[in-house]
Amino acid sequence: MDRRQAVKTLGAMIGVGLFVPESLLARAGDVLEGEAPKASFFNKQQRKLNALMAEALIPKTDTPGAKDAGVPAWMEFLLQDCYDKKQQDDYLNGLALVEEECMKRTGKNFGKLSTVLQSGVLSTMETELAPDSQLAGFLQVFKSLAKYTYVHSEKGATQAFAYLPVPGKWDGDMTLEKGQKVWVS
Q1: Number of domains present in the structure of the chain
Q2: Rounded-to-integer distance, Cα 64 and Cα 120, Å
């Protein structure tokens, strides 16, 4: 394993080690380039909800959003390929709980809300739910998987972060300029 792979793998294990299955960590060094292989884990409504939630979490700004980076497709592929049956069922149940909670709070399905309201509803749910609730647990898993796939995607790593394929020396006290991107390698 080269230095780049080791740093990426270590960062992935530290960042998401608590919320993702071990089989996904086995893929931590994989670069999520191009389009994800076709997966058939979600039905049409679940796929749309997952994509809308991912985009609400990581919206397009001056950097690519979750959809632009292929996050929803990679999430579906990893859920199908790396999660066990119980984890998959919990994830699908979590998507249903989001729709149910959104309907209670707004009277509308998640997809019928504006992008601003979608983001607000997810944030509100996260802060107002009991930390040990099933929905709060799902939101943690969802966020971890979405962030994992975003930072490991080609567009996320190269356009949202300052990408350096061969890192230089470590400087733990480096001064960052206002608006400077975070480094990833």
Answers
A1: 1
A2: 20
